[in-house]
Design a protein that fits this description.
This protein has about 170 residues and is mostly helical. It has helices at about 1-30, 35, 45-60, 65-70, 75-100, 105-125, 130-135, 135-155. Helix 5 packs across helix 8 (about 135-155).
Length: about 170
């Protein structure tokens, strides 16, 4: 349990740091399209969902063997937590900005950290769940589906509010 807790705490730090930095990667790379696949290419809410999704996806590949062996549900729990944290961004953003009628940068940043914390807290709560392990194929499918959607909608965003810049 100590190893799992340590892995998730380091993952929270990794995801927070990488997510924060990846906000700038696209511009720092002179708008390289490959970088744009995993980093926001504009200020739309959809593109900002990448800030949680891709760092957690990356972190899920770094589960040490002893940790994954002691908790086979950890990877699907982490990916499900990542999906929930990713979805929390538009829920919280549109809730508060809809109430206020505008967005505030420091609240947007706070939403990012709340979403990352929520993802790792969720992973911690579910990491020993046999039910999550049994649902791992569906969780992996959803993760791959969102990976494809992030790539597709980077180049061909639908004409709806989620993809518009605020």
């Amino acid at each position: 349990m100590k190893n799992i807790r340590f892995y998730l705490i380091i993952g929270f730090i990794f995801t927070s740091a990488l997510g924060t930095l990846s906000h700038f990667f696209y511009d720092w790379s002179d708008q390289n399209l490959l970088i744009g696949l995993i980093s926001p290419v504009n200020e739309s809410t959809w593109e900002h969902m990448k800030l949680v999704f891709f760092p957690i996806l990356s972190w899920s590949f770094f589960i040490p063997h002893p940790v994954s062996e002691s908790s086979p549900s950890l990877r699907p729990a982490l990916l499900l937590g990542g999906l929930s944290g990713t979805f929390l961004i538009p829920v919280l953003f549109y809730t508060y900005s809809g109430i206020l009628g505008h967005n505030i940068t420091w609240i947007d940043i706070t939403i990012f950290f709340i979403s990352v914390f929520s993802a790792f807290f969720y992973a911690w709560r579910l990491q020993d769940s046999a039910r999550i392990y049994r649902k791992r194929t569906a969780i992996y499918f959803l993760t791959v589906l969102f990976l494809i959607l992030f790539i597709l909608f980077t180049f061909l965003p639908p004409d709806i509010g989620l993809f518009a810049e605020p």
